[in-house]
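As a next step, the fold was encoded as tokens, giving this record:
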Amino acid sequence: MTTTLNRPTVRTLPNGLTIVAEQMPVEAVNLNIYLNVGSFLETDGINGMAHFLEHMVFKGTSRLAAGEFERLVEERGAVTNAATSQDYTHYYITTAPKDFAALAPLQIDVVTNPRIPEDDFAREKLVVLEEIRRSQDNSSRRIYQQAIEVAFAKLAYRRPVLGPEAVIEGITAQQMRFFHATHYQPTSMTAVAVGNLPVEELIDIVTDGFASQSGSMPAMEFVGKKSQPTPEPAFNRIVRREYIDPSLQQARLIMVWRVPGLMHLSETYPLDILAAILGSGRTSRLVKELREERQLVNNVSVSNMSNRIQGLFYLSAQLPSENIAEVEQIITQHIFQLQHTLATESEISRIRRQVANRYIFGTETPSDRADLYGYYRSVVGDLSPALNYPQQIQALDAKTLQLAARQYLSPNAYGIITVKPE
């Protein structure tokens, strides 16, 4: 199968920085700086540091006063933002091609040289604490966190990206400076530039932007995760947790299986298809039976969540409390069927078409492509999966899917979380 993507150019500089560039005939340019820095690498004592630092990056540098970067971006009609996850943090800006050479170095400056002044740090800590409280007041986020704590017994994926209030309250500006100096290094960065400028010009602008910086402070002694964690074993029994949440109108049911992460990328592909067969679209098995035909649930969805070290096969349903036991039984019956009966060719063909179309629709803008390239190069360490995902899905057959279901999805061993209104 052919795609609309041209193969991007990858350049690794002597300092370890990776630059990915691609010209795209859309009148915009996106610079997306990905770092292998997320909540997963934090110790318990600084859980939430990566996200807090994302806030502080925009509080000025030795060259830019606080708020000046945003003002300069807005004056030229550009946009900028950032996000932190468990496995990565990324900062991005989208500009007109004519403004890229002026604004890209500013984006690079705020990422590599934040001042982290004490007064701004104290004020922003209050903002982050309020964000944590809002998250705790959100029923969907609370339920997700409860599910994740069942899904992972030990891995740091069980912790919230935002961190606990008590930890954030105790973090100091000096700790954050050490964290930045240790982890915001060129070897941990991938800078992706996609848009309507020649590839070599994009690379030169990004290279010069990094070269013009004074560089972050030398890495200081900092206690962090050094060894590569190992995935947790699959559930060997049903681990059940039940909660009451009066804020809900209907109950929630979540079932999770521990599955391979992106370190074992090829093993995630059949699980992606199995998730789609079960819970993607009105004709998927669970949606069709549980919602459309038997009306036992208000909604149901299934996803294969692929973190770097370990993934989760994650099933979620909203339903009346009295239907929970019956719905769980039906779901496990479908898992059993996946293990013992081959998926039909029509089901697999439907998923193949969905994947191909979503891939095309999801790479139509410079920001889409920059995000795709940055994610795979940062989290997987390889750009090729960003280019050949549809082909990988096309190559899978029913027998491969059945083997994956047998290996990773058990109808008799999983984590299950139920949350009832009362």
